[in-house]
Amino acid sequence: MPILFLTILFVFCALFVFVIVRPEIFNRFGQRKNILRNISASVIICALALFLSIQVVSNHVVLSAVSVNDHILSSSTSTFVESSEISTTSTVSLSVTQSIAEPILSVSSLIIEPRDGIAPVIALINHAKISVDLVMYQLEDTLVENALINAKNRGVIVRVLLNKGYYGVDERHKNDSAFSYLKAHKVAVKWTPSYFALTHQKTLVVDRKDALIMTFNFTPQYYPTGREFGINDTNVYDITAIESAFDNDWNAQQKIASNGNYLVWSPHSESILVSLIKSASSTVFIYSEEMNEQAIESALESVAERGVDVEVVMTAESNWDTAFRMLSATGVHIHTFFADAPLYIHAKMILVDDARAFVGSENFSYSSLEKNRELGVMVYDSTTLASLSRTFEEDLQASNTFVSSVSTKTSSATVSSTILYYTSSYSATKYYYPSDCIKWKNLGAKYRVSFSSVHQLLVAYPDRILNPDCSR
Question: Which domain holds residue 29?
Answer without folding.
Answer: 2-74
